[in-house]
Automatic annotation (TrEMBL):
<dbReference type="Pfam" id="PF00378">
    <property type="entry name" value="ECH_1"/>
</dbReference>
<keyword id="KW-0456">Lyase</keyword>
<dbReference type="InterPro" id="IPR029045">
    <property type="entry name" value="ClpP/crotonase-like_dom_sf"/>
</dbReference>
<dbReference type="InterPro" id="IPR001753">
    <property type="entry name" value="Enoyl-CoA_hydra/iso"/>
</dbReference>
<comment type="similarity">
    <text>Belongs to the enoyl-CoA hydratase/isomerase family.</text>
</comment>
<dbReference type="InterPro" id="IPR018376">
    <property type="entry name" value="Enoyl-CoA_hyd/isom_CS"/>
</dbReference>
<dbReference type="InterPro" id="IPR014748">
    <property type="entry name" value="Enoyl-CoA_hydra_C"/>
</dbReference>
<protein>
    <submittedName>
        <fullName>Methylmalonyl-CoA decarboxylase</fullName>
    </submittedName>
</protein>
Amino acid sequence: MSTTEAGAFSVTADIVDERIARLTFSYPTRRNALSAGLLEQMDARLVDLAAQRIPVVILGTDVGQDVWSAGHDLGELAHDRDPIAYGKPLEKVLRRVRAYPGVVIAMVSGSAWGGAVDLAMSCDMVIADGSARFAMTPANIGLPYTTSGLLRFFNNVPIHVLKEMFFTAQPLDAARAERFGVINRLVDSDKLEPTALEIARGIATKAPLAIQAVKEQLRILEDMQPMPVQAMEQIAELRRRACESADFGEGLVAFSERRAPVFGGR
């Protein structure tokens, strides 16, 4: 068992048996928000589990809570206006989950908001109970989502459902999520953990190298675009830096004052 705590949040990795781990995150005072610190510890735990060659990881919070995760900790946006850019803690964890050399199962009880939905959908399978809700809320705070994030949804839900989720920020309930294939298994709350473990144990008996190869092939196929997803995200990061620079502010002021800008490369 490995536990890391910082303030009010914790991330724990419990070895259920030789081939299955339960990765649990908790931030009760912030509705299990994905703060930068929590995400960094989740990333570290995934690295540790990969090093131990654990072929199946069950990822989630405690069953029975109203909120699985409220997504980004909005209190951090005062210091980070683009928390989903390339290289930020959430994107690092999403890539870590997708590249994990084994199967990652999201076990969802309660509502998931914003980046937490992306976390669940980045997992290989989703097991949920009837309280699960999936709401993409960036439009509520004026945050444009990343291309790689949209591609994860594009590859998993019908286009009109994707637009509904991002345009309205209204939650996709468990029944609709199952209908559109977001949820693999929809079960009663008391059967959520037993079902996730049953599926994990079944996967754990299979040849891990074969599963790892199939997962990586599917990841590569999913990422096949005219421009690699990571390259697009790197470009987006450069644009973000330019938009937040002093030069950008100077350009706007100079335009309004009808004068030539004086750029300093900062």
